[in-house]
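WARN retry 2 of 3 for item q-0093 after timeout on previous attempt; input resubmitted unchanged.
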Amino acid sequence: MSPPAATPVIAVTSGEPAGVGPELCLSLPRLLAQAKEAFRVVVLGDRELLAERARQTGIAARFRSWPECAASADSEAGTLDILHCPLAAPAQAGKPDPANASYVLALLDRALSGCASGEFAAIVTAPVHKGIINEAGIPFTGHTEYLAEKTGTHRVVMMLAGAAGQTPSPHYLRVALATTHLPLKEVAAAITAPLLEESLRIVHAELVRRFGIDAPRILVAGLNPHAGEGGYLGREEIDIIAPVLEKLRKEGINLIGPLPADTIFTPPVLSGGDCVFAMYHDQGLAALKYATFGHGINVTLGLPVIRTSVDHGTALELAGTGRADPGSLAEAVRQALFMVYKGR
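OK item q-0093 returned
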């Protein structure tokens, strides 16, 4: 990678205050110390919450205030730059409070505004608790949908990625989804030609733009067992999926499928593609998380900003114990930085 014109600043939202997000953020100075590329990290969260979690977990932490420190040295060993956003209510590790739902969303809004102004080059998100946000009376289905709405983006695609097994690994998996957080009974009706066309165009364009893959090969899963088995197990492949793939192939997009989902993740098939495109959440992510959990990441494709995230939830039972693994958050920051440099 060649260095960018200015040192990029990655905004990290600390997520659900009762979850593991705040303490995972405390591990970021180690990543800064190990990185070869020039960049800065700013954690968005309540400063006292982060200090309290550091005391609970025994993590040594020193803080600087952002943006006051913006003009100072790019980094200071062992120090975390904090953009203080006050909690709406006191937070206790492991015990989420709906009163803090507005705080969690305010972190995302501030990160977005920072990207819009050029203050931040990318957003990395620690996990939020969807149920608690909904308990507060705020309709919320996930980061992906929220960021799309806030940026006025008509269509985004959720993609998870990671190295299979221990890194370094020659098998780097990318799995994009046609549908995300839907009940299974609603998936078939949601698989429409416009959805597939738009989503596959986004995946192709982002693999080129954000990941530097000049001619990406996309493996497309069928919806039904055995990809419908010639119509005997469902006609979505014949009536919807295959015609869309043929149309996009004529535009020069390299699409392989529709392929049976029970074999698409086998090594011989994966070796022929750069990304798997699954029809629904668990079809794609069960296999990916089995192979990459703990160092996988989530990427939102199609946004006007770069956004990556961890591949796990709030882990309330681990909050405040110091046992939470920061590997996924560190990888999400690395991937965001990679995408920043690739896009320059």
